[in-house]
Fold this sequence. Notes:
Blueprint: H1 6-22, H2 26-39, H3 43-55, H4 59-72, H5 77-89, H6 93-105, H7 112-125, H8 129-142, H9 147-160
Helix pairs in contact: 1-2, 2-3, 3-4, 3-5, 4-5, 5-6, 5-7, 6-7, 7-8, 8-9
Amino acid sequence: xxxxxxxxxxxxxxxxxxxxxxxxxxxxxxxxxxxxxxxxxxxxxxxxxxxxxxxxxxxxxxxxxxxxxxxxxxxxxxxxxxxxxxxxxxxxxxxxxxxxxxxxxxxxxxxxxxxxxxxxxxxxxxxxxxxxxxxxxxxxxxxxxxxxxxxxxxxxxxxxxx
Length: 162
């Protein structure tokens, strides 16, 4: 049985870890994400710890941490999308597809445009330009100001006219 204040301590450590990560202090961020997880396991802490690991180039470890987050809450979309993005970073677009598609089915997810964009990247790497274009357009339908999707769509459209 965890003490009642464990959840508050976990949240405090998580916020401190995030702040460290945003300032590029990845070792400190990893330490505080770990402390947060020592208090209470959360899919958020595992997902953000995975993100910090990816910033250090540790994509295999990032994938493991996302899988742990998914085990805790399969309806949390962030780790599904992030796992797909890490597979893309490892040049495994085919492997990324089911994770990115699952992110779009999660109800606890606020950034569907990321999953659409990453699916576009996967389809583009696989040589399916029309599906890539459709996914970039869907990303922009979710967030019209998402510059990465705008740039990717523009790049595809320019490529089609040459």
